């Protein structure tokens, strides 16, 4: 068991608020005891935490016999050199006169001071001691052994394990030199562990994974682009505080176990840490104090809507809050966490915190932003909506945006609608639609805002009104469908209906009237009929229009209902025959309209324009032009229709006016003089009076036989007919027994006609007599063949008509 002299016991107090750019003693009280009465040669006072090497320093004030001081800027340590014979009281007085100062006007955070009589640096936050040991060229392994062999006032030494920024600064930036510390990744490349001290127990503490782009699970202080394992393989596996000339002062790099001599990567020593090991004694050989800067921890930058008093605040971790109008200089305008100035423009305030009378602390800006206030015409607005007269609907739809002009005319404002004032103020449960359907009167709240945070809440009352017009009120506009289409659609002037409706309303109010095609449009005020002077109904025949009446005096709806009916009356429809005629056997002609409505009233006029009848049918006794129009029971008058009545009669058909011309084996039939037929308009046909007539009386290629010629009067005055007998007299025959043309006979005589046909030779000798029972002459006389020659015939009909002629008998010669 090692033994050591009992070190002096130190005690100090001091937890002071510091004013930047000022000086302050490091202790408020200090005491020292020396149980062993061993000489005290030095006292070391160090800024062990928060040190700012550019601005901070410690110094001894006053004259102290037998005591001198020197300041080490690198280690932030003030050393009191004590001559023999110096009393504890003198040491106490000297320590009490050590001051701290900083030239940093942005001083922040804290400074922790350690006081000890030994060389090792003391860190109050860990309670450990740290010592740099110079040993040029020592390997990491040897440094680990050497550190473990060192003790400090009974505390076991080990290669330092720097697990916090405070340790890293004290043993790195503020160390007397560069050297080894207790980290390695020799067991697993890229897995860096603290393997010494308390952290090295139980397998070590991992503080880094990977290379230069790796990460730390707790704390690491690698230099730039470190660790880089520059030599690869089993190479740079040991942790080293980099030479101050390389990269960031006090940062780490990885080296091989022996370093890289010569140069800046050649080890120059190692850092020993004392404290925290099992079996270490409790010692009180050091003391620590603290100063700190008061800081503003929270501010409430705010805004104001229009000139007014505003509440702003600032919180600090300590001291008094001071308010200024400038970023630096000047005197405070207020003290305290809360300030209530009156503001009429955007204003910057500055706050700082510190001890009483300290105006040098870092200031924070608090801006009170000024916005023009939201101005509204009225904070209580009412919308009135009507139910539709005669409707079964139990609810009404409000267009909330109709209230906007009553609230404000500023186009830059936004309007949001809520069902409660609380929701409007908190901007929760905003209505998604501005069309709101309700069954009873209600209210909503309108939040009026712009791009600023200012707003106003307006109460919007929604009232459901019912109609006050007379029950079953309706105004009918009617017209005849007298345009060219006659499709049940017609133009209307709605101004007449407007006047009638206004006359039915109370005279002490002002009203506006608008027309709509249906109740939904009227309720929602959409698709208003704007072409009132020339509106064309959309439903053929009949259409109702919904009227919305607004009370301009109260800015609300007065009534909605189907107060206008549009009626398009049908025009009378009838036809007349194309023309009429007198037949020679008739004394008059009846003109009867076609497809008529029996309720029409008619007016008939002659061609001189004289009214001659109001009856549906007109009987005329003379030809000419007649006109008529019809009027319906609704007063609609048709267009005028006209009919011509002409003279006509049946055809006078006689034999004398018919020409029959033989053309070989056929005949032509024609009318000699059509004018002799009569005054009618005639058409002609042979044999079939119900067939297709032709307009002229000429027929060609008519076969022999009995035919009937029919002549029809196109005007309906009758059909005339004439029977015609067309005989076919062969010019020759060839009775040579070949079965073709072996007999001669007259063709076309009806079977029932009695006739006598006599045949003679050229000398007048009677050869044979034939009648209707005969089938013709076979060219024989008394059984003998007659020679080829011309022969004559004589035909006698029963009516006494006779015909004569000749024909040839031809025999072939071989």
Tell me briefly what this model is:
The chain folds into 8 domains: 9-121; 128-274, Mannose-Binding Protein A, subunit A (Mannose-Binding Protein A, Chain A, Roll), CATH 3.10.100; 296-371, Immunoglobulin-like (Sandwich), CATH 2.60.40; 380-465, Sandwich (Immunoglobulin-like); 475-569, no CATH class; 579-648, Immunoglobulins (Immunoglobulin-like, Sandwich); 655-726, Sandwich (Immunoglobulin-like), CATH 2.60.40; 732-809, Immunoglobulin-like (Sandwich), CATH 2.60.40. 7% of the residues lie in helices and 41% in strands. The protein is built from 8 helices and 63 strands.
Low-pLDDT residue intervals, each spanning 5 or more residues: none
* Largest sheet report: 6 strands, mixed
CATH class of the largest domain: Alpha Beta
Arithmetic mean pLDDT: 90
Question: Roughly how much helix do the residues carry, as a percent range?
Answer: under 10%
Query: What's the multimeric state?
Result: single chain
Enter the CATH topology name of the largest domain.
Mannose-Binding Protein A, Chain A
Q: What percent of residues are in strands?
A: 35-45%
Number of strands: 63
Total domain units: 8
CATH-defined architecture of the largest domain: Roll
Distance between the termini: 180 Å
**Structural class determined from secondary elements:** mainly beta
Q: CATH homologous superfamily name of the largest domain?
A: Mannose-Binding Protein A, subunit A
Q: What is the tally of helical segments?
A: 8
Query: What strand line-up does the widest sheet have?
Result: 2-21-10-5-8-7
- Please state the CA-atom Rg, rounded to the nearest Å: 68 Å
Overall body shape: elongated
């Amino acid at each position: 068991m090692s033994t050591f002299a009992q070190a002096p016991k130190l005690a100090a107090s001091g937890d002071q608020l510091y004013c930047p750019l000022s000086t302050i003693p490091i202790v408020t009280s200090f005491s020292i005891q020396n149980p062993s009465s061993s000489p005290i040669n030095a006292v070391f006072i160090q800024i062990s935490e928060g040190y700012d090497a550019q601005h901070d320093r410690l110094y001894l004030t006053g004259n102290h016999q037998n005591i001198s001081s020197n300041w080490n800027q690198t280690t932030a340590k003030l050393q009191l050199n004590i001559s023999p014979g110096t009393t504890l009281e003198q040491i106490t007085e000297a320590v009490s006169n050590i001051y701290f100062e900083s030239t940093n006007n942005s001083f922040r955070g804290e400074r922790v001071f350690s006081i000890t009589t030994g060389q090792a640096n003391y860190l109050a936050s860990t309670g450990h001691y740290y010592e740099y040991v110079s040993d040029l060229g020592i390997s990491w392994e040897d440094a680990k052994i050497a550190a473990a062999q060192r003790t400090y006032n009974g505390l076991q030494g080990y290669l330092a394990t720097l697990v916090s920024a405070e340790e890293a600064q004290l043993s790195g930036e503020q160390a007397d030199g560069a050297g080894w510390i207790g980290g390695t990744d020799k067991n697993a490349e890229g897995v860096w562990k603290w393997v010494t001290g308390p952290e090295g127990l139980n397998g070590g503490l991992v503080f880094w994974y990977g290379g230069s782009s790796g990460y730390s699970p707790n704390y690491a202080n690698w230099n730039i682009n470190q660790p880089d394992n520059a030599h690869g393989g089993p190479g740079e596996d040991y942790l080293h505080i980099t030479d101050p000339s390389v990269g960031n002062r006090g940062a780490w790099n990885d080296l091989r176990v022996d370093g890289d001599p010569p140069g800046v990567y050649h080890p120059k020593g190692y850092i020993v840490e004392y404290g925290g090991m099992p079996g270490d004694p409790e010692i009180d050989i050091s003391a620590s104090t603290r100063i700190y800067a008061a800081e503003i921890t929270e501010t409430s930058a705010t805004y104001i809507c229009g000139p007014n008093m505003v509440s702003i605040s600032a919180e600090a971790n300590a001291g008094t809050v001071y308010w200024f109008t400038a970023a630096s200089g000047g005197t405070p305008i207020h003290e305290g966490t809360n300030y209530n100035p009156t503001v009429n423009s955007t204003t910057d305030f500055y706050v700082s915190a510190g001890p009483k009378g300290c105006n040098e602390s870092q200031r924070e800006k608090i801006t009170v932003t000024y916005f023009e206030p939201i101005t509204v015409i009225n904070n209580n607005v009412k919308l009135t909506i009507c139910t539709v007269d005669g409707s079964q609907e139990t609810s009404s739809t409000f267009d909330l945006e109709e209230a906007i002009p009553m609230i404000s005319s500023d186009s830059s404002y936004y309007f949001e609608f809520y069902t409660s004032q609380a929701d409007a103020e908190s901007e929760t449960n905003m209505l998604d639609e501005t069309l709101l359907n309700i069954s009873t009167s209600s209210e909503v709240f309108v939040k009026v805002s712009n791009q600023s945070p200012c707003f106003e809440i307006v109460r919007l009352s929604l009232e459901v009104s019912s109609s006050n017009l007379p029950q079953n009120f309706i105004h009918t506009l009617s017209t005849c469908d007298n345009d060219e289409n006659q499709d049940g659609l017609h133009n209307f002037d709605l101004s007449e209906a407007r006047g009638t409706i206004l006359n039915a309303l109370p005279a002490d109010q002002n009203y506006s009237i608008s027309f709509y095609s249906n109740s939904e449009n009227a309720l929602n005020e959409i698709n208003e009929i704007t072409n009132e002077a020339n509106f064309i109904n959309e439903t053929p025949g009949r259409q109702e229009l919904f009227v919305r009446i607004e009370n301009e005096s109260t800015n609300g709806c007065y009534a909605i209902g189907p107060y206008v009916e549009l009626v398009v009356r049908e025009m009378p429809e009838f036809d007349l025959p194309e023309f009429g005629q007198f037949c020679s056997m008739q004394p008059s002609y009846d003109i009867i309209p076609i497809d008529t409505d029996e309720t029409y009233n008619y007016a008939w006029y002659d061609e001189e324009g004289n009214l001659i009848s109001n009856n549906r049918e007109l009987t005329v006794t003379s030809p000419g032009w007649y006109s008529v129009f019809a009027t319906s029971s609704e007063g609609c008058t048709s267009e005028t229709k006209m009919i011509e009545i002409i003279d006509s009669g049946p055809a006078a058909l006689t034999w004398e006016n018919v020409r029959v011309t033989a053309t070989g084996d056929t005949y032509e039939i024609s009318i000699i003089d059509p004018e002799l037929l009569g005054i009618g308009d005639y058409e002609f046909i042979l044999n079939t009076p119900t067939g297709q007539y032709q307009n002229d009386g000429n027929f060609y290629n008519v076969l022999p036989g009995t035919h009937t010629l029919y002549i029809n009067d196109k005007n309906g005055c009758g059909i005339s007919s004439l029977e015609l007998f067309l005989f076919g007299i062969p010019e020759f025959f060839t009775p040579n027994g070949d079965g073709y043309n072996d007999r001669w006979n007259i063709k076309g005589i009806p079977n029932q006609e009695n006739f006598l046909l006599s045949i003679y030779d050229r000398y007048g000798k009677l050869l044979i007599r034939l009648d209707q029972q005969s089938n013709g002459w076979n060219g024989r006389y008394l059984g003998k063949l007659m020679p080829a020659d011309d022969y004559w015939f004589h035909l006698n009909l029963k009516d006494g008509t006779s015909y004569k002629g000749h024909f040839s008998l031809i025999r072939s010669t071989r």
